[in-house]
Fold:
Amino acid sequence: MNYKEIDILKGVFSNMLKNQYTLRSIELGINGKLIAVGYNPYWTSRLDSKIEKIELSFLNSRGIMVPLVLKNVVDFEIYPKEGRRSKKYRINSIELMTLSPYVNPKNQKDIYDRVKFEVIYDD
Structure:
């Protein structure tokens, strides 16, 4: 991931935060509105190749804030990939890839943990 891709990811989360979209991750048991996003490092430079830490806060349906901290985010995928230039384009899901601290790269083919969020619109 280069610094432009990091800025794209930050823009996606800023847009989700501004519109208060509901995000759901079945694997993590999270279902709530995105209410806060924090990054480390906050400013992106040309030398950055990953985000050290992303802090996401969700507000679930019972009014409880659920924090989530993801470390070493190295890549992301936005689905659907087609039609991004269209005005009607909407993100259905976003998948973040983080370096797994518990995987031995010699024994595993995939050294990344994947966290997938579905975007739920209130239309």
